[in-house]
Amino acid sequence: MTIAVVTDSTAYLPAELDGMYDLTIVPLTVVINGWGGLEGIEVSPAEVARALTARRAAVSTSRPAPSAFTEVYRRLLDEGADGVVSVHISAKLSGTYEAAQLAAAEIGSRVKVVDSGTAAMGLGFPALAAAEAARKGHDLDAVWQEATDHAARVSTLFYVDTLEFLRRGGRIGAASALLGTALSVKPILHVDEGAVVVRDKVRTAGRALTRLVDLAVEAAGDGEADVAVHHLGTPDRAAALVGDLSARLGDRLRDCYLTEVGAVVAAHTGPGLAGVVVHQRA
């Protein structure tokens, strides 16, 4: 049986995996001062970062249209797929999942959609697991179940220099955003039940990154885990996180990736983002 796997551009899959998995990626759109471009194709995270630091710049994001998913699903089925599993960014963070659901309803039972409940490699890991299951010849339900199971194994933690951009985009409440400015508190955030919430609070950026490592090691548990470190314009900060996590996890660390986030997440977090996604192997 041939099952095609679809995800969206917010998975931020590492470049070293290009060509290793059969995945179709549907891009979201980023709008800068009224001009819209497709993430990863027409607009870069660096462009977003520059716009966010410019005065009077307006940056927003939008989901793919349901018709974009319909077109992709029909093409994959016409090319010989027996079914499609479509794995996407949290429904509480984007309308992408809803758009995919609308398209799936139009196509019928041969398309199943998964809400990963998170973003970035928190989405990427379950999408990769689904692609691996599809490569092994599993049927539609089994590939869907694999994506769902692996989505439950990820923990997404991150630090930002300011919560202002998350507040502007409606991805975090005003009260939590105020917390980040009060008494120079530096909050560490995580994705909980699909939404961005404050996980911990420290006084300095340095302590925040140290605490980020502590929480990631805690999330890994006692078994083997994969880790993805994300950043926006702070490669040195990300490389230091990789080093600290490698030292702390030791032989329990399996795959470790370092990637810059794309334009959509950049639009909502702003420059200075440092994040860790932990994927428990079992």
Brief write-up:
The protein is of the alpha/beta class and 282 residues long.
Task: Provide an overview of this structure.
By secondary structure, the protein is α/β, with parallel strands linked by helices. It has 2 domains: 3-28 and 63-151, 3-Layer(aba) Sandwich (Rossmann fold), CATH 3.40.50.10170; 154-280, 2-Layer Sandwich (Hypothetical Protein Tm841, Chain: A,domain 3). The protein is 39% helix and 27% strand. The protein contains 10 helices and 13 strands. The chain has helices at 45-53, 66-78, 96-107, 121-135, 140-151, 164-168, 174-179, 205-220, 235-249, 263-269; strands spanning 3-8, 23-26, 29-32, 35-38, 59-62, 83-88, 111-115, 154-159, 186-192, 195-202, 225-231, 253-260, 274-280. The strands form 3 sheets. A 6-stranded mixed sheet has the order 10-9-8-13-11-12, sandwiched between helices. β6, α3 (96-107) and β7 form a beta-alpha-beta unit. α1 packs parallel to α10 (263-269) and α8 (205-220) packs across α9. The mean pLDDT is 91.
CATH architecture label of the largest domain: 2-Layer Sandwich
- Please count the beta strands (DSSP E, at least 2 residues each): 13
Mean pLDDT, to the nearest integer, reads: 91
SSE run: EEEEHEHEHEHHEHHEEHEHEHE
Principal-axes geometry comes out as: globular
Low-confidence stretches: none
Which percent bin holds the helix content? 25-40%
Main CATH class of the largest domain: Alpha Beta
Please report the distance between the alpha carbons of the first and last residues: 26 Å
Q: Main beta sheet: strand number and arrangement?
A: 6 strands, mixed
* Total domain count: 2
Order the strands across the largest sheet as they lie in space. 10-9-8-13-11-12
How large is the radius of gyration? 18 Å
* Category by helix and strand content: alpha/beta
Protein name: DegV family protein with EDD domain
InterPro entries: DegV (IPR003797), DegV_C (IPR043168), DegV_domain_contain (IPR050270)
Pfam family, one: DegV
Keywords: Lipid-binding
